[in-house]
Recover the amino acids of this structure.
C-alpha cells in the first residue's frame, strides 16, 4: 500500500558525508521506524515510528522546495518499511535527484536515481535487493566483517560501487585494517563519515 503519510524524524539540508556522493550538498529526509536493531546505531531515536509525526507528501515536498536543493537522500531509520512510490513521484515532479540509503531488509518501492545498500547482520537484505544496488557500503565493526564484505560483493552487479566504512567508535582500531584491506582489494574504496569530521549533521 502506497503511503500517503510517513513518520519523519527529521529533515535537514547538509553535505553528504558518506559513500559515493560524499561532499555533495544534499537534503536529508530521515524516516522514523526501524526494526533492524544495530547495536552501534547512532540514530536509535529513529527506531520508534510512533515517536515521530506522520507528514504528508505535500508537507515533505514543501520543505524540500524551501531548501532549493536538487538532490535528496531518503534515509532512516529504515525507509523501505514504507512504500515510497508517492513521495519519490512527487519529488521527481519538481526535478529532484533521489538517493536511498537502506539496509535492504524490505522491498524497495519507489523511483530512485541511486540506491546505497548497507547490509546489517541483524536483519539481512532481501536477495532481490542486491541487484538493485548502485553502491554497497559495508560497515566494518570487527575483523569478521571483511569476510562478510567479500561474500556480499559477489551478490551485487559488476557496476556496483564498493565501499568499506568503519563504525565510528571503532575508527582507531579498524581504520588501519581497512586501509590495508583496500590496498589488497583495490575494487573497494574507503568511505569516511566526513560530516562528523566537519561537525555538521
Amino acid at each position: 500500500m502506497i503511503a500517503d503519510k510517513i513518520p519523519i524524524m527529521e529533515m535537514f539540508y547538509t553535505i553528504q558525508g558518506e559513500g559515493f556522493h560524499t561532499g555533495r550538498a544534499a537534503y536529508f529526509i530521515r524516516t522514523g521506524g526501524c526494526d533492524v536493531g544495530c547495536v552501534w546505531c547512532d540514530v536509535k531515536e529513529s527506531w520508534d515510528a510512533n515517536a515521530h509525526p506522520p507528514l504528508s507528501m505535500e508537507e515533505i515536498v514543501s520543505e524540500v522546495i524551501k531548501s532549493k536543493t536538487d538532490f535528496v537522500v531518503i534515509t532512516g531509520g529504515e525507509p523501505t518499511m514504507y512504500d515510497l512510490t508517492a513521495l519519490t513521484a512527487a519529488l521527481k515532479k519538481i526535478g529532484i535527484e533521489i538517493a536511498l540509503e537502506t539496509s535492504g531488509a524490505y522491498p524497495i518501492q519507489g523511483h530512485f536515481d541511486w540506491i546505497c545498500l548497507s547490509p546489517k547482520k541483524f536483519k539481512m537484505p532481501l536477495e532481490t535487493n542486491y541487484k538493485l544496488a548502485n553502491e554497497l557500503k559495508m560497515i566494518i565493526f570487527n575483523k569478521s566483517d571483511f569476510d562478510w564484505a567479500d561474500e556480499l560483493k559477489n551478490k551485487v552487479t559488476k557496476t556496483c560501487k564498493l565501499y568499506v566504512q568503519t563504525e565510528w567508535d571503532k575508527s582507531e582500531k579498524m581504520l588501519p585494517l581497512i586501509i590495508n584491506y583496500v590496498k589488497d582489494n583495490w575494487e573497494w574504496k574507503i568511505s569516511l563519515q566526513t560530516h562528523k569530521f566537519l561537525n555538521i549533521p
